Design the sequence.
């Protein structure tokens, strides 16, 4: 099972490297774990773990593998940094997963039950992060892929700074409203 999982993850990472334009930090290690507390995990060492329960569910396994693989495209961060700005990583990665999943699956010739995936995502834990990020993106008028790609390429502790700088270009009341929205996002994305 783990050799098949490794091959699948390698293929996903290869496609993502082409889509994003930079290399993954994945170290080639992936393991199946018995866990009821998480679907998958990308470890600071570059290893990836996938829950056996998720692995057994084809549709959810693919979305989880893409999500965990995307973590390896963020610049290296520490446990301390992650714990202080968790939403800036999880929100960016989860929304990017939703954006690139169709392209990744098409490149690999995989067809999933999209309605089932959308159902799972409707109540996803990271939706609160995505809501705040989407509010900022819409206020800036940025295209979804370029917005999240820019954030993914940026160190997690600097993501709010990048968005603060982007907001400077707005004028008058739009800038003031954006700055308030950004302050709310900074608080929400720390949880």
Sequence:
């Amino acid at each position: 099972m783990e050799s098949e999982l490794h091959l699948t993850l390698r293929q996903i990472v290869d496609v993502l490297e082409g889509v994003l334009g930079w290399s993954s930090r994945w170290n080639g290690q992936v393991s199946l774990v018995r866990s009821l507390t998480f679907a998958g995990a990308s470890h600071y060492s570059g290893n990836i773990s996938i829950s056996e329960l998720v692995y057994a569910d084809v549709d959810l396994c693919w979305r989880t593998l893409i999500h965990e693989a995307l973590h390896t495209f963020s610049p290296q961060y520490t446990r301390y940094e992650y714990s202080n700005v968790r939403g800036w990583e999880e929100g960016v990665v989860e929304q990017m997963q939703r954006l690139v999943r169709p392209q990744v699956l098409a490149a690999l010739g995989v067809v999933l039950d999209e309605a089932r995936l959308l159902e799972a995502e409707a109540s996803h834990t990271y939706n609160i992060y995505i809501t705040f990020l989407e509010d900022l993106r819409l206020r800036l008028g940025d295209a979804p892929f370029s917005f999240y790609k820019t954030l993914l390429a940026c160190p997690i502790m600097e993501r709010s700074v990048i968005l603060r700088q982007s907001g400077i270009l707005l004028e008058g009341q739009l800038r003031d409203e954006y700055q308030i929205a950004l302050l709310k996002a900074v608080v929400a994305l720390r949880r």
